[in-house]
Hints:
CATH superfamily of the domain at 37-121: Winged helix-like DNA-binding domain superfamily/Winged helix DNA-binding domain
Amino acid sequence: MTDQQPSAPARAKSGPFTRGVEHVNEPHTDNFVVVGNHLVQHPELSLTAIGLAVHIQSLPAGAPVGIKALAAKFPEGEIRIASALRELEEHGYLARLKERLQSGRCVTRTVSYNKPRRTMLQAAAEPEPAREPEPQPEAARPVAELLAELRAYDSRLLLTERDVRRLSPAVETWLERGVAPTAVQRALTNDLPASPIKHPAAFLAHRLKEHLPPSLPAPKPLPAPAARPLPFQNCDGCDRVFRAPEPGRCRDCRTATTAA
């Protein structure tokens, strides 16, 4: 009579032997949590972040989920847990909201999402709307061209090349004072007299001199923008809210670490 070896546990029926995982699934009727594959198979989250998210989703409402409380449960340590919490925030599975109490003290309220917040994912996926091109200022035309075109408005304003050279400095003064070329032409051609203009160059020179607009005042310097306060951060040591340019530890935790 030979000894019989204990039978091995029944393997899930999955056809011929293949490499990889085999599942033995039994239904849960109590004490379970439903987690989406979008989280447990997330291609960008670390395993620490995925495991931490599953743990947080399994907790009852009101359970402490601060860095110190989580570090007391798991061996990863405060630094890795703080980094995993930031990953979950970036991908929309967690929000740590800063609230100010009536006493003036700031506290953190943690909200867990079993599906990533759509607003965050859409904001990351949607490209910024294309900006409309800003209107370009009117291209400055050569002064000689501006003066030569005056005859198109009234044939009495026909100028010779010598007249154009003599009037050009006065027109340039108008342009230097911020007057658009079209505005210069209107100033020279509006309200022309009904009588013949025997000397168009002298007539235009008089208008350019008498109607010369004043120089624009120098633009006032813009007031210096007020310094913005540093953003709120969650301390990686005590999970307390403090202001700092980057995540890390608050002053009390840094002092305690140095003293230790």
